[in-house]
Amino acid sequence: MTEKKIAVKVDHVSKFFKLPVESTQSLRTALVNRFKGIKGYKEQHVLKDIDFEVEEGDFFGIVGRNGSGKSTLLKIISQIYVPEQGTVTVNGKMVSFIELGVGFNPELTGRENVYMNGAMLGFTTAEVDAMYDEIVEFAELEDFMNQKLKNYSSGMQVRLAFSVAIKAQGDVLILDEVLAVGDEAFQRKCNDYFMERKKSGKTTILVTHDMGAVKKYCNKAILIEDGYIKAKGEPRDVANQYSFDNTEQVITSDQPGIERSGSVVKNLKLSLLSSKRATPNEPISFDLTYTLLEDVPTYIAISFTDIDRNVWIYNDNTMDNLTSGKGDIKVNYQCSLAGLNDIKLKLEVTVRDANNQVLAFLPADEIPVIVLNRDDIDEDDESAKDSATGIIQRNGKWSFS
């Protein structure tokens, strides 16, 4: 087995910026501050000892929250920034697409902008000649290339800029947050291109907040948090860690739910018994407790909402748990959501009376978020990868104690 060559090597890279904290127009004050050790700025350490390798043919994902250092890292790889420590080695011609439309001139025609942008990327006129037809065809702008860019719609400008980047014949393609460019039809075309590129053996580095894209396109990934690499390796594991980190919520048992004015229900509390990060085959279970001040019938209604699409996925308001009796009530609920995958669910709970009036509900900071990810997906089974799009069959069971 032949050993793969290294396309990009990031060797223990650190980067900080100097942020001014005071300014002075006085030379005397500046000298006094210098003797006192007051620098007039503070250091913001954005990247701290980042170390990884991208092999030829990798589709490499970089994920992390805003401000984690992802874009700074790309600018260092693209030789826009110089690191304070460490080195970056890129083998081959690199095409970097960090911001849409950078280097485009609105007073030039589309054709002139293609050649100018190509020159900025390091291509000769002959090389741009060879790529030109393919760029224009992908952008679907054949009839507009002799018009000035300022007369293009924003969508047309996006298509042209993106097409120049991805159709430029470089050895390493770097993309920063560009998967949502263009309209739906153009996005489908981009999806097809990325699938082809994934199979072609060309090297791609992708920064994105779209964990579905990481799992779909990438064969390796890293998660950056506070300037450090928190996780690296399999894209599914890295993406799941990112999703879990950003949906983790602590349910505190000493904060009651919110009751309607004059409600007979007090002290509604929820305790999630199952894991907040699980596979769809694992059942979801939780306990609910509340105090009933009067001997009136009440029941609990629950629902799971797909956070990304803001649609109901599952609900149960069947009154199967209708109960009465003054005092403390404890109810357990268990259900299966095996029809779902790669999804973030928000659990919502209300206590209602027999007339379906809401008596109490959990506040937003007590609503748990559950991440379901299936690790044993057949890569050829597209149906298994997608989350359910409608309300799945109710299968929950209530029990009282």
Structural features, described:
By secondary structure, the protein is of the alpha+beta class. The chain has two domains: 6-245, P-loop containing nucleotide triphosphate hydrolases (Rossmann fold); 258-400, abc- transporter (atp binding component) like domain (Coagulation Factor XIII, Chain A, domain 1, Distorted Sandwich), CATH 2.70.50. The chain is 24% helix and 34% strand. The protein contains nine helices and 20 strands. α3 (110-120) crosses α4 (125-139), α4 crosses α5 and α7 runs antiparallel to α8 (235-245). The longest helix is centred in the middle third of the chain and has 17 residues, at 184-200. The chain is globular and about 85 Å long. The termini are far apart. Mean pLDDT is 81; it is low at 248-254 and 376-388. This is Polysaccharide ABC exporter ATP-binding protein. Pfam families: ABC_tran. Belongs to the ABC transporter superfamily.
